[in-house]
Amino acid sequence: VAVLVAAMSPQIAEAFNVESAAALAIFGCGIPLHLSQAVDRGVLQGRLAFRRLAMSFIVEMAVRLAASVALVAAGFGLLGVAVALWLSLLAALVAARWAVGPMSTAPAARPAQLRSVVGATTVLLVAQITISHGDLLLVKQRFSPAEAGTYAVVALLGRAVFTISWSVVTATFPAGAQLANDPIALRSVIRGGVGVLATGGMLAIVGSWLLADRVIAVLFADAYRDAAPLLGAYVLATVLLTLANFLAIIDLARGCHRRTALLVAGAIVQTALILTSDTLDGVVWAQVAAMAATLTLMTVSGSGQRSLAHVA
Fold first, then answer.
1. Which end of the chain has less neighbouring CB within 10 Å, N or C?
2. What is the C-alpha separation between 157 and 166, in angstroms, rounded?
3. Does position 124 have pLDDT exceeding 80, yes or no?
């Protein structure tokens, strides 16, 4: 994938109106680093070593922030941001590898079992990427640069809500896997996770509707105030996504793929609705509709599974 992104960076830059093909090539070279540190972080997550896991994220954040500010101030612009991203991924890999330490050799998993787990996880991640990033790429391709810039502000703030939700997912995923055979305890974990996400999401929705103008003016500039009316609905769509994503991941942890399939369907519906939208407002509400339908189907699907289990 790294070679492909680097080799096709001019074509990708032209397709999505990206200023620098070189920056895309540098980003492509960081993909192997990202995947490698993700494996080490997965080990820390499975061990419930959350302090060391958090340390690796702090190192990544600090290096990315410091390098980005320094390189942009030095006049390197987007290219400097790409280099800073690459350096932060390298720092994250070193920190995560140190945090994991030496690992004992364990018996290899059965090939069929490994293919099943990897395949289901890959499908889930592709659906997540399509939902959480596809909208920005489609807007960048289909709308003017000014409109795409306005939408990018909204998307950046909305993604902050999704990123924060991953702390809940990170903590509950290994618990869900360990409690797969204990439905009562697993149900308690799911209720706790949904409760935290719903409460935090409600606060984010209300805050984004009431304080959008002020937040955008402080974090960006008055020129981006056109993004304010879009923020509340976009955050609503993001909160719906966080809940649907959480349910799908917990299902995956206990070996069930039904909600993963529903998340894939939601990604397809969202993409189709965005392609039929001619305004930024339509793009945002298309995501709200797609994620609301996805979450509703996931909830109904879960209720059906519990009913069947009760009958059995």
1. C
2. 15
3. yes
d(CA 211, CA 231): 10
DSSP H or E segment with residue 226? none
Provide the residue type at 5 as one letter. Answer: V
Cα torsion 200, 179, 170, 51: sign: positive
| Mean pLDDT to the nearest integer, 29-48 | 87
Residue (of 65, 80, 212, 83) closest to 153 by Cα position: 212
Amino acid, res. 145: P
Q: How far apart are CA 80 and CA 122, in angstroms?
A: 31
For residue 312, the model assigns a pLDDT of: 38
Identify the H or E element spanning 224. none
Burial of 118 (0-12, 13-18, 19+ CB in 10 A): exposed
Where is 129: in which H helix or E strand? helix 111-142
Alpha-carbon distance of 260 to 250, in angstroms, equals 10
| Residue with tokens 């920056």, as numbered in its chain | 23
pLDDT tens digit sequence for 7-38 = 888 888 887 777 778 888 888 888 899 888 88
Q: Is 104 helix (H, G, I), strand (E, B) or coil?
A: coil
**Phi-psi region for residue 48, left (φ > 0), alpha (ψ -120 to 50) or beta?**
left
Long-range contacts of the stretch 300-306 (C-beta < 8 A, 24+)? 301/258, 301/259, 301/262, 302/247, 302/259, 305/256, 305/258
> What is the pTM (predicted TM-score) of this model?
0.77
CB 274 within 8 A of CB 135: yes
Asked if residue 308 has pLDDT above 70, the reply is no
Whether 307 shows a pLDDT value over 50: the answer reads: no
